[in-house]
Write a sequence for this structure.
């Protein structure tokens, strides 16, 4: 695998706990309309800053110095929506966990139950790993499995690596990673990441190779809900409370299923993922399994 920036892993230095300080690049206090759980509605940045107290409050620049990794240019970053998502989450990382908690981000809480009984798992990949909430559930659900996290935003990955130090991390656009990696996995998860992806079916087609025969893929996506204004548009760009734009892509459940044609469905459902304007935001949840033998492997 080439072209990616590798960070973390068991040998990586840990972020010391218990330190506090200023978070660099924090935006001005403001309350703005936002349309995603990673935006903290009706709260100011200073109130978030007051409530943070762990070692991740150190300036990003200082955290970055604790990592040893090769510098690889972001050659895959050409799509404007992906560039926006990266910028958004780089800026938002410092308050992401608190925001997710406040908006009732529920999806990771279902993973342990969903993965019960998947059998012995040697390794698992989490795409769009963010600050590591999904990986820490995988660590509980799949004891002993080698974990890999991939995310496009370094500020998110830095936090994930402090939260799940045994995991290995790759800083990359998920599409670039999926298309180029030689790695194969028993379990792949993508929780809360596909709504920022302009070509979800394309990433899924690539993912078909990464999941080993009989392996599992657990993913979420934001469905198009015809007639329900908050989720009726296929593509929507909104302003987050950090003053940056974020583009959301939605899909029909049939489009997602078609990209995994030939795989078996372990479970497929629509569920409330978080609160937006006091209303539940609906997500599609799909747990699919690759057949034991498959011609296009
Ligand atoms: C809403 S967070 C979800 C994180 C985590 N799975 C969770 O449930 O808390 C979305 C993450 O997707 C990442 N992301 C967005 N677009 C991406 C892309 N094209 N490639 C890789 N990661 C991406 C963001 O940087 C962010 O960390």
């Amino acid at each position: 695998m080439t072209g990616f920036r590798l960070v973390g892993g068991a040998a990586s230095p840990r972020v010391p706990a218990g330190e506090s300080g200023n978070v660099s690049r924090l935006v001005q206090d403001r309350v703005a309309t936002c349309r995603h759980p990673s935006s903290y509605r009706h709260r100011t940045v200073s109130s978030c800053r007051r409530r943070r107290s762990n070692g991740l409050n150190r300036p990003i620049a200082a955290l970055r110095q604790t990592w040893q990794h090769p510098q690889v240019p972001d050659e895959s970053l050409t799509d404007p929506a992906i560039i926006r998502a990266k910028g958004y989450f780089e800026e938002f990382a410092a308050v992401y966990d608190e925001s997710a908690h406040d908006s009732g981000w529920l999806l990771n809480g279902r993973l342990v139950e969903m993965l019960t009984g998947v059998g012995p798992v040697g390794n698992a990949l989490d795409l769009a790993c963010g600050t590591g909430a999904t990986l820490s559930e995988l660590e509980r659900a799949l004891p002993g499995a080698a974990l890999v996290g991939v995310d496009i935003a370094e500020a998110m990955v830095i936090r994930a690596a402090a939260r799940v130090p045994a995991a290995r991390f790759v800083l990359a656009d998920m599409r670039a990673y999926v298309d180029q990696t030689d790695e194969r996995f028993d379990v792949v998860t993508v929780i809360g990441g596909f709504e920022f992806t302009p070509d979800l079916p394309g990433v899924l087609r690539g993912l078909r190779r990464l999941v080993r025969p009989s392996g599992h893929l657990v993913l979420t996506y934001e469905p198009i809900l015809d007639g329900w204004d908050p989720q009726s548009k296929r593509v929507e760009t909104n302003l987050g409370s950090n003053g940056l734009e974020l583009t959301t892509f939605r899909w029909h459940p049939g489009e997602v299923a078609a990209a995994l044609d030939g795989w078996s469905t372990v479970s497929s459902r629509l569920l409330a993922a978080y609160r937006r304007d006091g209303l539940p935001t609906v997500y599609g949840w799909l747990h699919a399994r690759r057949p034991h033998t498959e011609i296009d492997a």
Summary: The mean pLDDT is 79. The first strand starts at residue 5 and ends at 8. Strands lie at 5-8, 123-127, 146-151, 168-171, 185-190, 211-221, 235-239, 245-249, 264-276, 279-289. The CA atoms of residues 262 and 291 lie 7 Å apart.
